[in-house]
UniProtKB/TrEMBL annotation:
This is N-acetyltransferase domain-containing protein. InterPro entries: Acyl_CoA_acyltransferase, GNAT_dom. It comes from the Bacteria. One of its GO terms (molecular function) is acyltransferase activity, transferring groups other than amino-acyl groups. Residues 3-154 form the N-acetyltransferase domain.
């Protein structure tokens, strides 16, 4: 099966919303609002469409979605802007075919080109550790969202990119519905 990962276009908004809703349906650790979150994140002043991608199948149907949003790591008056992956979703009928991997790789490449130091993820360590994500508390970085330490993960995008970064991750208000 041929999949392409492309920057989202307005005609993808509704199909992407449905893919996210379907992907998170019945998942244990979810508030069930991820599909609405993507719309709220698009309204942010610092939203960049190049950090929102869809995976399209050979019929140009949306089968996956991924989005990076700017967040801040703050401590003692110092702040560093990094990116958060939220949400990453693949339609249940297409899961297990490495589509999520393709989305992550594309978003990481785009973030690296724009010189963001790291990507934060709140997710399953079994899945995300395959891509080099580690517990964020290894870097003394904690989430301000109520999540288990093991699920607060981060990936530095180049050697030493988090050498002088620690503190708490603060998310835009759009995360709090």
């Amino acid at each position: 099966m041929k999949i392409s990962v492309e920057t989202i276009q307005p005609e993808h908004y509704e199909p992407a919303k449905q893919v996210v809703k379907d992907a998170f349906s019945g998942i244990k650790f979810t508030d069930g609002d991820e599909h609405n979150l993507i719309g709220r994140l698009r309204q942010l002043d610092d939203y960049q469409s190049n950090f929102e991608v869809v995976a399209l199948n050979e019929n140009s149907e949306v089968v996956g979605h991924g989005m990076l949003t700017q967040v801040e790591v703050r401590m003692n008056g110092h702040k560093e802007t990094i990116l958060a992956l939220a949400p990453l979703a693949v339609h249940p009928d297409y899961q297990g075919q490495l589509i999520g991997s393709q989305i992550i790789e594309e978003l990481e490449a785009r973030a690296t080109i724009q010189r963001f130091p790291a990507i934060s993820i709140l997710g399953d360590p079994t899945f995300y550790s395959r891509f080099g994500y580690v517990a964020a508390d290894n870097f003394n970085i904690l989430s301000t969202l109520p999540v288990e330490l093991v699920n607060n993960m981060i990936k530095p995008l180049w050697d030493g990119s988090l050498a002088k970064v620690s503190g708490k991750i603060y998310y835009p208000n759009a995360f709090f519905h």
